[in-house]
Amino acid sequence: MTIFKSNPFHPTQHSTLYQALYSHMRTAILSGELKGGMKLPSTRALADELKISRNTVLNAYRQLLAEGYLEGKGGSGTFIARVLPETLLSASRQNKPKAPQFPQAESSQPVFSDNAKMQIAVSQSPASGKLPRPFLAEAPALDAFPYKLWSRLVVRQARRMPITNFTYQDSAGYRPLREAIAAHVAVSRQVHCIPEQVMIVSGSQGALDLAARMLVNAGDSVWMEDPGYPGARGAFIGSGAHIIPVPVDHEGLVVDIGISRAPQVRLVYITPSHQFPLGVTMSLSRRLALLDWAKHANAYILEDDYDSEFRYAGHPLATLQGLDNADRVIYIGTFSKVLFPSIRIGYMILPPALVDSFLKVRRLIDIHSPMLEQAVLADFITDGHYIRHLRRMRTLYAERRTVLLEAAKDLPLEIYSPEAGIHCVGWLADGVDDLALANQAADYDLDITLISNFNIGPLTRRGLLLGYGGYSVQEIKDGVQRLANLLRST
User: Fold this and answer.
1) Are residues 204 and 308 in the same domain?
2) CA distance 285 to 66
3) Is pLDDT larger for residue 119 or for residue 178?
4) Do 172 and 257 fall within a single domain?
5) What is the pLDDT of residue 89?
6) Confidence of residue 315 (pLDDT cuts 50, 70, 90)
7) Maximum mean pLDDT: which of 53-57, 95-99, 347-351
8) What is the pLDDT of residue 15?
9) Chain segment 334-362, per-residue pLDDT in tens
10) Interacting residues of 459 by C-beta distance below 8 A, sequence separation 6+
11) In DSSP terms, which residues pair with 77 in a beta bridge?
């Protein structure tokens, strides 16, 4: 039986299906058609009833839960909130002095561009500014960072920095840092470049945004791994791109399917060394096939090498950039995982023909990254601290990975744990409601990230990410016990 009795759901052409369902449900809640305390059907049941993707329903429920229109009750399902956000907001304003009255526009709702609306829809929850709970996938070992050493380098640089460093700087970034990065990636990742090809940006997200601005016109097609990183998807949507989801198997991106779906695209986004979120490594044959296709299609490849420094067995395959002989690869690296997320320093290694044009547009965005942090990082690398820190982190993460796998061996999960990165994948048994797990996780003091958060097309399996990098041995053991209790409750 439908939950929309008096006002059936009909998606419009002016919004995405997810936005249309979210808006329809919110209107039904505010109008009283869906009453407080009412239990909603499961996401699967509502998707079947409306003849739409369950992922669409899942995203609409998530948004309404985040905004306070729905409530998730452990083991019982999802309900309409008895007290709505508008009621709370109204009560909080009753005792405040009246604000001056100004002429109102016909609608008090802000009007955003179509691209912005789609970016809002795919954006992840904002960071809390708090230490993460298990098992957040992207959390590095902040407890093991050499803070005292870093502080000394900050003080040293702040004292000796010349006054000329307080003026506007080269948009490519601090020259000594670019030299240090070029030397490091040449040895550690077999990347071929000179410092003039290196551009310092605000993390990998800054690189993705700039590449999308430079290389994608509205309506252009872009290949994306499916499942894949939402930050990349959002950057491409912001440029008006048409996203072509390309599935990932045990060898990485399935190049043949990408070619069959869209043989001529402007851009390909890929995480070949440690695919996010599934963790697989792209095979050499697939890498060569992708490079050959890109050369003949005149397409660029964005190679996001976000955490390839962490590998616990064997040697990593050569980067796409290192194999590229046609200048089709833009290599992206970041220090967020190796050092700490708030450093917000990443880099792009550009083909020579792109450098000047990218720099000109970069100047229109934020001119350049902050100088002090770049100078400190340059010292950290050139003085040898960076490589020593990397070695310590590889040993630490390998230990934490082993502890997680041992503690989780009795969980009702099929665990895939590549010998790289700082997270594993836990595949759920058929029929387990992943949304219910995510809704109840906070009650067990856990942060659960679902594979379904990253899918574009229909899901073939449901699962969750188990990050181990940012947690001590005891935190991992305790977290697994709480996860076991959570899984038993659903």
Assistant:
1) yes
2) 43
3) 178
4) yes
5) 47
6) confident
7) 347-351
8) 60
9) 999 999 999 999 999 999 999 999 999 99
10) 54, 55, 451, 452
11) 73
Alpha helices by DSSP H, 326-384: 355-365, 371-382
- How far apart, in Å, do the first and last CA atoms of the chain sit? 24
| Boundary of a domain, candidates 332, 359, 383 | 383
Q: Are residues 365 and 402 in the same domain?
A: no
pTM: 0.78
- Asked if residue 377 lies in contact with residue 389, where contact means CB atoms within 8 angstroms, the answer is no
* Of 70, 62, 76, residue with least CA distance to 30: 70
Residues 6+ away with beta carbon under 8 Å from 476: 134, 400, 403, 404, 407, 468
210 Rama sector, left if φ>0, alpha if ψ -120 to 50, beta otherwise: alpha
Alpha-carbon dihedral angle through residues 352, 356, 357, 363, given to the nearest 10 degrees:
140
Q: List the helix and strand counts (H, then E) for the chain.
A: 17, 14
Q: Which domain holds residue 362?
A: 162-383
CA distance 468 to 125: 20
pLDDT tens-digit series, residues 217-239: 999 999 999 999 999 999 999 99
Enter the tokens of residue 288.
Answer: 């060569």
> For residues 465 and 229, what is the distance between their CA atoms, to the nearest angstrom?
13
Q: At what angle do helices 385-407 and 473-489 cross, to 10 degrees?
A: 40
Q: Quick check: helix, strand or coil at residue 30? A: helix
349 three-class SS: strand
Pairing mode of beta strands 449-450, 463-467: antiparallel
Residue type, 326: A
Per residue in 137-146, pLDDT (tens digit) is 888 999 999 9
pLDDT at res. 45? 84
Residues 454 and 441: their CA atoms lie apart, in Å, by: 18
Statement to judge: residues 355 and 409 lie in one domain? no
Regarding whether 411 and 289 lie in a shared domain, the answer is no
Closest to 416 (Cα-Cα) out of 274, 228, 287? 274
**419 within domain boundaries:** yes
Task: Assign 32 a pLDDT band (cuts: 50, 70, 90).
Answer: confident
DSSP state of 242: E
Number of compact structural domains in the chain = 3
Q: Are residues 379 and 429 in the same domain?
A: no
Identify whether residues 394 and 373 lie together within a single domain.
Answer: no
CB 483 within 8 A of CB 135: yes
CATH number, residue 427: 3.90.1150.10
Would you give the distance in Å from CA 405 to the centre of its chain? 24
CATH number of 46's domain: 1.10.10.10
Bridge partner residues of 348 (DSSP): 199, 332
**The domain boundary residue, chosen from 383, 408, 427:** 383
All residues at 6 or more sequence positions from 234 whose CB lies less than 8 Å from its CB, including other chains? 119, 122, 123
Contact 277, 308 (CB under 8 A): no
User: Is 477 within a domain?
Assistant: yes
